[in-house]
Write the structure tokens for this entry.
Amino acid sequence: MIYEIALLPVHNEHIETFRRAFAEVAPLLSRAKGYGGHSLAQGIETPQLFHLIVRWQSLEDHTLLLQAN
């Protein structure tokens, strides 16, 4: 299992827009080969910083998604 960790800064005035957009994109992510789940957490002390953790079955699955873009 491979964990991809991304820190996603979002301007305060765009937080709700970001949440809605991510909710629309998440189903696309879940269809990727090797996808093993994800979590998106908003910082408590820094609410404009979101932490995205995506679990992949292998490093190859993670890099295949990157190469597709």
Observations:
- The chain has a mean pLDDT of 92.
- The first strand starts at residue 2 and ends at 9.
